[in-house]
Amino acid sequence: MSYVKTPNEAHKTLTERMRYLASGTKYDSCNQSAVCHAFAPDGRCIQLYKTLLTNYCSGECTYCPNRCERDTPRVSLSPDEVVKITWSFYRRNAVEGLFLSSGVIGDAENTSEKQLEVARKLRAQGFQGYIHMRLMPGTPKYLLEEIADVANKFGVNAETTSSINYSEVCPNFDYTNDVLQRLKWTKELIIEKRKEVGYGGRIIGANDTQFVVGAADESDRDIVHTVNKFMDKYDLRRPYFMSFDPVADTPLEHNTPSPQWREVRLYQTSYLLKDYGLKAKDLDEIYTDKGFLKDQDPKILLAQSNAEIFPIDINNASQQELLLVPGIGPVSASRIMQSRPINCEQELARMGVVITRARPYIKIKGRCQTNLSAFMEACS
Amino acid sequence: MIIGFRTTVEGVLLTCLKLRQLPDAQLMFAEDLEELQRKIDFAGLETDLELVGFESAASTTELIARVFGKHWNRHVKFSRRKEPDPIHFIDLVLRHADCDPSELVRTLSLSEDVPSLFSGKMQLQKRCYRCMREVNLSYQRLCMFARPAFVRGILTVDIKPEHRIEDMFCRWLARKNPDLPVAVVHGDKAWIGNGHFVGLDRFIVVTSLFMGNLEAMNVSDEVEELWDVYYDSQMIDSRRNKKHAKKFQPKAASSVSGMSMKDRYKVERGISPCKLGDFFEI
Q1: How far apart are CA A66 and CA A74, in angstroms?
Q2: Cα angle for residues B156, B158, B160 (degrees, 5° grid)
Q3: Using CB atoms, which residue from A18, A93, A330 is nearest to B229?
Q4: Which of residues 67-106 of B touch A (CB under 8 A)?
Q5: Core-most of A168, A279, A283, B273, by most CB within 10 Å?
Q6: ipTM of this complex > 0.90?
Q7: Would you list the domain boundaries of chain A?
Q8: Considering CB atoms only, which of A38, A42, A334 is closest to B235?
């Protein structure tokens, strides 16, 4: 498919086309950094100009509003137009860079070439901002290598947890070859580029991927185990989750939307893997019988299921034990380790510990919050 | 004994070393020798005066190593809070509108190592740390919410910062746009970055009037409308988290630019799903 405008598209202005394509990426969360230049009115960070190159798509993904069989207005932006808009926003300090995704234009190779063209044009014009490219499943290795030269971050969405589920939601692509193989190549390229660029050079972002939560029948346990596997195997740094919302005129239009809290709980669980050093098997006790997360903080659920190890002595516990306490994160755990001995709760609060959460699980200088069983024991 | 020092990073570090030798000395600071002389005349002081930092001395890295030891940058390397190194710390504190450089010197001379600078165990350390945080926050907010526009081909931004950070911000803007002249205007002064594109030094401070005469290539700038379209397209109504959004688009920073003011308005009021054009489409 070329960039010749169809009669339907011809009368749409640049602004109109931009609106269509930008809204196509609004569910893609960007890579949050220390300084974000803009935040969407709903509170999410939009430090990048996020857009699709086109919403024409030859794919038949069952959940996607841009699937080829759906009757929806189709528009495209030419690489030059994307470059122009990116520069305009970047100059005005409204964004830090570009997040570029696309519908599948014919095949993955053709689409990635167009995406690469945008990135190349920007770099050729001296663009120093951040470029994040979401690539199509099945992008050839030679193109991944070329993209790695110009983009700061690139990757393929896994969407789901297994080949069977994937063939249901994305029937045009093969999970093992088009997704997992690409994740492996991406990992290798990131390692290679980081070695080339060295410390202080161009940012080379870590491997990442996105899951559509609720489109297939996978449980949260499956998703968390898959994330863990990807972290071990493909150096996945951070998974993104997108709640499934049924779109009219798609095969899944009558399915139930995935609740928003499920996405939030999955993010919280993924942070336990990413930042707290836990493994998926450590979290097996927090799911329901069917393997789904409850609408409660997974860390509190984990602490409740391991009640026998609490309360822990804040002045003697190891960093890994401290990390199991609700209300203590990696930063506050390391502050506690450096500032021992701790004498009172106020000191902990100053270090960033959420006391109301942590109180039932900690002991300071032999003192801990009493609980009903301890009270009854003391009375007897 | 009075130590008269210049309010620069070198001046502060040299004075700190001197104060460790002469802990009972009084401190007096000034931007330059003339100002110091005026202060001395005004106070009518006749005691011994030692000038520090008005002539170029050793480099700041050498001085900081003499103050905090050769491992002065180790704390910053391992700090999880990404705190600035001590040189940057001093620079930031000196930029604070209410900064008392004498207090800073005393804090440094009493701090045996770099971590104690950030520990806040003494009142003086706390005050300096707070100053550093405020200046840093002010700078970060400018980097986030200032929206420069092209004025006669120069990427220009008008700011009113609480602290003396105009040059810092100008250097940041120049680094971000290395192929364009940039200008940061505050009152009757303008800081020009990448000035070589308009026949000036790479970084220079001029008057606003002079800046009015500068002209680079003509660049059209019709971004605001496009930004509004993009900004509105990113809203997901079902995910609206007003409290969170307000935190990221703080009211205090919304006056930095017209665009951020408009963004803040949308955070507070939401985006109207109904526009005048919709009536005509019906």
Answers
A1: 8
A2: 150
A3: A18
A4: 80-82
A5: A283
A6: no
A7: 7-299, 306-379
A8: A42
